[in-house]
Amino acid sequence: MQSVYIWGLGAFYKRNVKKLEKYNILGYIDNNPDKNGTLYKGKKVISSKQATVDMPILIMSKEFIPMVYELIGRGIKHVLIGTYLFPESYQEQLLRDSGRFKIEESRLLYNDNVIQVDSDIKKIYRKLVKNSGVTDFIEKLPEIPMCRDFGITRGTPIDRKYIEQFLEKYREDIKGEVLEIADNTYTLKYGEDKIKKSYPFVDLVFGTHVVHKLPELLYKALTGKKRVFDIDDTDQVIAEGIPVKRDNDAKAWLPIMYGCNNFCSYCIVPYVRGRERSREKADIIAEFKCLVEQGYKEITLLGQNVNSYGKDLEPKVTFAELLRQLNDIDGDFRIRFMTSHPKDCTKELIETMAECDKVAQHLHLPFQSGSNRVLKAMNRHYTREQYLELINYARKLMGDELSITSDIIVGFPGETYEEFQETLSLVKEIKATQLFTFIYSKREGTPAAKMDDPVPAEEKSRWFKELTDLQEKISAEQMSLHQGKTYKCYVYGKGKLADNYIAGRNDGNLIIEFEGDESLIGTFQNIKVIEPLTFVMRGELVKEKQI
To answer: Domain range spanning residue 535?
Structure first.
């Protein structure tokens, strides 16, 4: 049995304490001065400053990166990181034999901090600066050690996805010692001065609004004497003309705006992504036409709140007007969009969906709660009644072909069980095809994070199960309505029901899997539903009516 000192007595440790039975725990480390010198489970609690170089230390915290660097600086060489407790699919080996310290069982969340990369610096720079206009420094660049570890703090999933893809692609072209990169979420949470003083290993912090300046910022971080912080988003610039690499040949995503003005009390996005900024309509149309010419059949328009598109442009343009102009472009394609905010969803938009043959009849309209009091506390700016009016109008124009999906937060601070029941009653009324449900999670820096939250997590989990059980029944009922119907489906990839199945989506974004050849991927086909399941349908190809 291995002997260790446990560093971290917070929530992560408490959730995983039963998994530590294989260790002989010698004592505990915690930087809370109130705990220093006390006993915990019969073992002494000390501060990290009291740890000696020969102590075997097991870090039990998701915020382990600063802890690791502190131990490195103090010469402590035997370090374990308890991140092996996370699912294997989210793990990446941290540092294999760095020569500076030993990490055993050292596995790390992709989403939190580090991706390991190796190799030659100049190659990566040539690739970074291509088409960027920053070229004159390449040959002058000294042989400065670059990072073996690129630290990525939590941003939006889409930001992380593309950053991680980039780092993975150029893994063989990067080498070095230490360069950490954080986004401005980190800065907003901790403050610029806090990061500069407490996280000296962070050399570069930048916001997503300046991603186009990455080569320039990296150059400054590597060749300059000062650490680089570019977090000011006051210029509100949208960089156009940046080369785009799409990793899917079947469908494409097209951003039409950035940022958010809504300031929902639980959401950090407006603080980290800035205010709403719409792309010029001409730029969107030009990129859309290019995608159609390249053969993309399904194109999804993206924005934090697409319903607000065009309000900041001069002359102003509505999202409905943009959809109509895109719908008129020649070609065989389907238009989707996300995400919509109920307060800005207009009857004009719903009428456009009903009238435009290339706009999918799928409306993702998050309502979050069925209680008007909770909606006000969330700062959502609409009522339950207003939401239902929109849904009923959409169903009146599009009938059973319309697919409704939505988001719900369970256990918002201060929510009572009676108010949760109002959410359940709304779920019964709207009869959504699918719901995306979440138990409330605190985001530091938001108004909701400061609200009283007396309901225990266990109680919220019971509410959550009550909601998901209800929606599962409703989803099954809604799917059964499609039995025997034939739909024009865009075939997008391999299916999961059987090895020889491929999958398509109908106009309402419902998945239908059927037996077919992979050569059909990227085409529209008519598919007849033969067996509706809860979240997917089994179908068959109507061969005589291929599109």
So the answer is: 486-545
